[in-house]
Design brief:
It is built from 9 helices and no strands. The chain is an all-alpha fold. It has one domain. The N and C termini lie far apart (38 Å).
């Protein structure tokens, strides 16, 4: 049963992470800071309600640090989309987050992989794929250096925001409220 729950959570995460910025881009002209703030307040409200329901309203300095990383990464990602295209910025920071979190796990936490060769091949294919998608989209004249740099830094932050949780070595629900608190505080 836990593996089914894990796969279900992964699918829900994919759908959420892959589409949460689409409404912003559909609007056309938008205020990036306003959109970021509304998103952060929504995260705080939903996280607080969930923490109250599960009776896990706790405090953690590391949770605040995770919230800081996420909020700053989100702000950079909103601006990355503003300066480039959704189809360029999102793959850059998502791939960056995957590569950075992979490196955190491998180097800092000394997590093992069953095949280092396949792991390196997978990360390499991911990087090549993002470069390829960006170049194809650039033929439309939409590639912005500023957007790419912002998306890259967002990827580093998104790839690092789980590190404090891992360091805390606690239950995920005990980490939720302080993370949501700092997300709204930084908005």
């Amino acid at each position: 049963m836990p593996i089914v729950v894990g796969y279900l959570a992964a699918i829900i995460s994919m759908l959420g992470w892959g589409s949460y910025l689409v409404p912003m881009k559909r609007v056309g002209k938008y205020d990036a800071v306003y959109y970021h703030t509304v998103m952060c307040v929504s995260i705080f409200i939903s996280g607080s309600v969930f923490s109250l329901i599960t009776q896990n309203l706790t405090f953690s300095w590391l949770g605040l640090l995770s919230g800081f990383f996420w909020a700053l990464g989100n702000l950079l990602s909103v601006y990355a989309i503003k300066y480039s295209r959704l189809s360029i910025a999102v793959p850059i920071w998502m791939a960056g987050a995957i590569m950075v979190s992979f490196l955190w796990g491998l180097v800092f936490f000394r997590e093992s992989v069953s095949s280092m060769l396949l792991a390196i091949l997978g990360v390499t294919l991911l990087a090549v794929g993002v470069i390829w998608v960006s170049r194809i989209d650039n033929q439309k004249g939409s590639l912005s250096r500023k957007g790419i740099v912002l998306a890259s830094f967002a990827g580093v932050l998104f790839g690092s925001y789980i590190v404090p949780f891992k360091l805390a070595n606690t239950e995920p629900l005990l980490f939720l409220f302080p993370m949501c608190w700092d997300i709204v505080e930084r908005s």
